[in-house]
Structure formats: structure tokens, C-alpha cells
């Protein structure tokens, strides 16, 4: 199916841009750039069980999620190997109201998804990069993040490499 035939498929079920995620080998230099140089305002973050620290910043009308590994994590190893250790844009996230409906719509149109994870706070699925020009696209049904996120910027930086 041609991409032109998919125009608006996800927006027709309410998908909307949420954030761009950037992964790097160390959190502190990324925070310095996105906060001190670009003027990002720290919103929230968390240490994920997969071995990643994530920190979200608001910049203008958009949001950027910074991601870095925890000290012993191997979660990003393949990604860093593919970027010569520098990191870069990891994924783009679109929020949806119903993750199962989004998966169904994409499946009906032959678009490959993987990694479906269902949780009351954060359900997600990914669209394979080969389906869209090499970018990992995350679809997320977002619940009450306030129950899990942290607001201690310095503590989050310290938890990452």
C-alpha cells in the first residue's frame, strides 16, 4: 500500500504528536545543551526498569525526551553502535486514545508494529523503522503519569551515566 493511501490514518483515530526522544551515552551533557543552550524547561522524568533514565523538557510548544542508560545498562548498546557511540534521535512519539485501535488500524493496512506493551499508565507499540524511512515511531496511550514520574532533575541526572 502506498504511503499516500495512508494519509491521515492515525490522525483519523486521534493520534497527535507528543514528543521526540533523543538518546545519548550520558545525560548531563544533553541536559546542558537542551536546557542551557535551547532554553528547555525540565518537566519530569523517571528511571525505567529497562535501564534507562528519561527526562522530559518543554521547549516552546514542543517536548523533547532525553534518554541515557543507567550505569550497568546494555539497553542502548545496539542503538549507540549504529550511531558510532554518539546517540541521536531515538524515536518520535504520537499519543493515541486507544492503543489497540491504533494497532488494528495499522495492521489492517499492512504496517508492521512490534513491542506492544499494555499498562494502565503507559501502553505502547512501535512502528518498525523500515515502514517509514528509518525512524522508530512510538504510539502511546498515556495514563496518569503523575503517579510514577519524578521531579528531581539532579537526582535523575545522577542516576544516568
Written description of the protein model:
The protein is of the alpha+beta class and 161 residues long. It folds into two domains: 18-90, 2,3-Dihydroxybiphenyl 1,2-Dioxygenase, domain 1 (Roll); 96-145, no CATH class. Helices cover 21% and strands 35% of the residues. The chain contains four helices and eight strands; from the N terminus they run βαβββαβαβββα. The chain has helices spanning 27-37, 77-82, 99-108, 153-159, and strands at residues 16-23, 41-48, 52-59, 62-69, 88-95, 113-117, 122-127, 137-142. It has an eight-stranded mixed sheet, covered by helices on one side. A hairpin with a 3-residue loop joins strand 2 (41-48) and strand 3. The longest helix is centred in the N-terminal third of the chain and has 11 residues, at 27-37. It starts with 15 loop residues before the first strand and ends with a helix. The model has no long low-confidence stretch (mean pLDDT 92).
Q: Number of DSSP helices?
A: 4
How many domains make up the coordinates? 2
How far apart, in Å, are the first and last alpha carbons? 43 Å
Indicate the overall shape: globular
Rounded mean pLDDT score: 92
The class by helix and strand makeup works out as: alpha+beta
Oligomeric state, counting identical vs distinct chains: single chain
Tag the structure with descriptive keywords:
4 helices, alpha+beta, 8-stranded mixed sheet, 2 domains
Amino acid at each position: 500500500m502506498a504511503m499516500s493511501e495512508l494519509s491521515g490514518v492515525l490522525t483519523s483515530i486521534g493520534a497527535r504528536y507528543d514528543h521526540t526522544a533523543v538518546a545519548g551515552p550520558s545525560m548531563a551533557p544533553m541536559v546542558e545543551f537542551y536546557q542551557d543552550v535551547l532554553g528547555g524547561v525540565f518537566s519530569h522524568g523517571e528511571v525505567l526498569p529497562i535501564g534507562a533514565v528519561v527526562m522530559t523538557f518543554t521547549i516552546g510548544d514542543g517536548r523533547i525526551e532525553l534518554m541515557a542508560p543507567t550505569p550497568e545498562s546494555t539497553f542502548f548498546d545496539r542503538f549507540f553502535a549504529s550511531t558510532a557511540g554518539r546517540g541521536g534521535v531515538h524515536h518520535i512519539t504520537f499519543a493515541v486514545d486507544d492503543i489497540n485501535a491504533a494497532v488494528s488500524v495499522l495492521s489492517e493496512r499492512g504496517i508492521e508494529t512490534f513491542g506492544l506493551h499494555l499498562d494502565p499508565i503507559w501502553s505502547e507499540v512501535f512502528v518498525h523503522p523500515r515502514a517509514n524511512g528509518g525512524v522508530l515511531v512510538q504510539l502511546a496511550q498515556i495514563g496518569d503519569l503523575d503517579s510514577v514520574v519524578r521531579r528531581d532533575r539532579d537526582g535523575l541526572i545522577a542516576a544516568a551515566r
